[in-house]
Amino acid sequence: MRTLTILTALIGAVAAAPSLIPRVSPFSIAKPGGVDDIVITANNTLNGTYHSSTTVSKHAIQARAQAGHLPIQLVNNFSGGQVNAYISGLDTDNRVVFVRGDGSLVYPSSGGSSVPVPISTPINIALPAQGQSITVNVPIVISSARIYFSVGNLQFFMVKIPNGDGLVQPSQFNLQDPSSGLLWGFVELTYTTDLAVFANISYVDFVGIILSMSLSTTDGSGTQTTKGLGSSALTQICQGLVQQASVDGFPWSSMCIANSGGTLVRALSPGDYSVINAAAFQNYWSAYVDQVWSHYTSTPLTINTQTSAGSVNCQVSGSTLNCNGDNRGYAKPTAGDIWGCNSGPFAIQGGDNAVHAAVVPRLCAAFVRSTLLLAGGNVQPGLGQSSYYTVSPTNHYSRLVHQFEIDGRGYAFPYDDVNPDGNENASGTLASGAPNVLTVYVGAPPS
Ligand SMILES: *[C@@H]1O[C@H](CO)[C@@H](O)[C@H](O)[C@H]1NC(C)=O
Ligand SMILES: *[C@@H]1O[C@H](CO)[C@@H](O)[C@H](O)[C@H]1NC(C)=O
Ligand SMILES: *[C@@H]1O[C@H](CO)[C@@H](O)[C@H](O)[C@H]1NC(C)=O
Ligand SMILES: *[C@@H]1O[C@H](CO)[C@@H](O)[C@H](O)[C@H]1NC(C)=O
Ligand SMILES: CC(=O)N[C@H]1CO[C@H](CO)[C@@H](O)[C@@H]1O
Q1: What b-and-e string marks burial along 138-147, b requiring 16 or more CB atoms within 10 Å of the CB?
Q2: Nearest residue CA, atom 5 of ligand 5?
């Protein structure tokens, strides 16, 4: 019944006509399974070197003898239950490592098993009550790191891989993943051997638990902040996707995943949703792509490469869009090509020249934002943010993510950094060669 209450509240808030209320959940439902339901792909693994047939723990004092010292403050702003954090990554020997709350290290082992083995040594950092924070001193440099947060216990596994030991992480799009019913998310972190910090919040794949971060510095350059999404953004984005589905009949709302209790846990990007349902949006862009190709058969499309190559003219001939000075042309993109910006005509290959490498992001961004047939859309990038996502078809997930971002930060598709003047910057990245403290807020951004 909780599902129905939440649904009615969601839909009641957005639908003008109560008759539009669907009788079945418009959301995808997580059905968490066991080890057998894990699907190992490049998207949910962190592959390291093999170190030992058993899990090894290092006390904080032993760990502190190593290079590195990064205080990470974890601020609990979450009102909906006990939050756990997990800090995972690769050490300088490329071994999978977790940092615990007391600064001790855990090097989990698969024990040589090619079937994923749950990590049984405690690796969770239990956050204190809402309004309070804990500071974890990371004693080592760490790459490909993530700071995960979840309501409940995330399940991580180790598995033997051909050249080492791999960490199997929760999958956002496998509805049977053991952690699929939990609200979770992560920020990405690299702490280099030069003791520089790069931390990133991205919505390219999904929106989960609400995270923000700031990085203070010791070189007088001040504090950098990425607020990202507001505390109610997941519900608001899913309300928007329910509404969009009622407008155009495409299953936008199925990109939202609820658990069996009816709680929303994630909104997937359309590219990630296509793993669950490849057919749903297969033809979503077809008519628009045809119109664009037809329009730019008789009219030139100008791409400002924003490089020393300047602006180049492009025009469709036959079925191919060709740009002056570009080593090869562009076939019509499919929906999958537009969501991911990295396949079909948008796959950049070795040997592609600088013009090609500049056209791909600008052309794909123009599709994602649906600006190619607007007045002024014949110059890309050209139109400003107020013109993005104003006509359908478009990437309504990206539209909604941007609508609910507080400071415009956090990519909602892979080339969100394309912009006309170089002034707008949707990057969620914080970076400093002189980091003091990295602070991550869970549940709500700092005021
Ligand atoms: C890790 O190794 C597994 C097994 O070989 C492979 O399937 C997976 O794609 C690898 N992950 C990455 C990120 O390369
Ligand atoms: C941050 O995330 C975005 C989107 O996933 C990615 O394109 C960008 O390269 C990342 N930045 C860094 C510094 O890792
Ligand atoms: C956007 O901001 C990020 C992080 O501050 C920076 O690394 C990047 O160079 C900026 N991009 C542009 C186009 O200004
Ligand atoms: C989150 O924590 C920060 C820092 O304590 C505070 O400024 C902000 O008001 C908090 N927001 C909420 C909604 O708790
Ligand atoms: C759906 C999704 O995110 N797929 C990605 C999985 O990883 C490969 C390789 O890194 C990407 O190319 C896919 O886009």
Answers
A1: bbbbbbbbbb
A2: 43
Ligand 2 mean position, distance from CA 165 (Å):
25
Q: Are 362 and 418 in contact (CB under 8 A)?
A: yes
What value does the mean pLDDT take over residues 106-134? 97
Of 83, 223, 225, 447, the residue with max ligand 4 atoms within 8 A of its CB, to mutate for a pocket test, comes to 447
Domains of the chain and any CATH numbers: 1-17+26-278+393-447 (2.60.110.10), 286-390 (3.30.920.50)
Q: Across residues 36-42, what is the average pLDDT?
A: 96
**Which residue is listed with tokens 């723990």?**
57
- Running DSSP on this structure, what letter comes out for residue 115? S
pLDDT (mean) for 355-362: 98
Which residues on neighbouring strands pair with residue 88, listed in sequence order?
Answer: 98, 146
Tell me: pLDDT of 429 over 60.
yes
64 pLDDT exceeds 90? no
DSSP-assigned beta bridge partners for residue 320: 317
